[in-house]
Amino acid sequence: MKATATANANIALVKYWGKRSSDPILPQNGSISMTCDGMSTTTTVEFSDKYREHTVTINDEEFKKDEKDIHGHIDRICKLAGIIQHAKVVSESNFPVAAGLASSASGFAALTMAACTAAGLKLSKKELSIITRQGSGSACRSIFGGFVEWVRGQKDDGSDSYAECIASKEKWPDFRMIATIVEAKKKPVSSRGGMAQTVTTCPYYKDWLSTVEDDLDTVRKGIQEKDFGKVASTAEFNALKMHATMITTKPPIIYWIPATMEIIHAVRQMREDGINAYFTMDAGPNVKILCLDKDVSEIEKRVNELDGVVNTILCKPGDGAALLDKHLF
Ligand code: PMV
Cα(276) to centroid of ligand 1, in Å? Predict the structure, then answer.
């Protein structure tokens, strides 16, 4: 009753922002992401009678319960599998957690695949994405590789709200995302808290929703056509629209710090200079730059010259979650 899985983070090109239900987690809108090779979490889960409670260790630190209820997610999987044992979970990520870099996506995807396998469940990837979604919404996209759509669905039970691959990583191998790390600290407002507050208090939230379908269509088509300008410019505008709703909640949520603005302006300057670069951001201060492989070295050079940039992580389209033979304990 032991299994290990690895999953990559994903960064949304069309963002999930707002829940229509928090139990089960169901989104107000569909979203599209790229699964990021280069930012991964590996997790080993063992169920055994020798454990008296679930224990979760992330990057060598014992995880205390918080709003992203990992213990509750393990209970959910135990219930589904009809097992009564407790779990020991050990997880390692190769990038900063909880800094707006989608660590919960790789974390919940790896945890779900490892725990379901250890519990003896035989599931399709679509079914795994549905279970993963109940732990952390955006994580359901990390079950698949390449470019992935999380379909909104209509039903209250969530059976039609799942992720699916819309283009493999081989379809667009030179697409790149450069994550610029400006501040690898835990963020002040979680994405979960931030989106709940936005749905209830932002006067423009319905306007966000009214434009997302068009963004989904454009990005879906753009990926099929490998039209970089179409995909990346739509992704940039979509991220700005999402941040506009965050800034106009009560109280306002402003994730940006001076270094965030520094990078945004640097990317706009790059475009003036003929470099095809766009940006996107999530619920945090870090900026992810979208570009093609041929422009990576020039962009990294320029970005690393900026005062506020601590580090960059280069990602290309990566694989979906997978089981590993080697366990972490
Ligand atoms: O699934 P959560 O609670 O980590 O929310 C993620 C929300 C964004 O990262 C801001 C957007 C997205 O689609 O990933």
Answer: 26
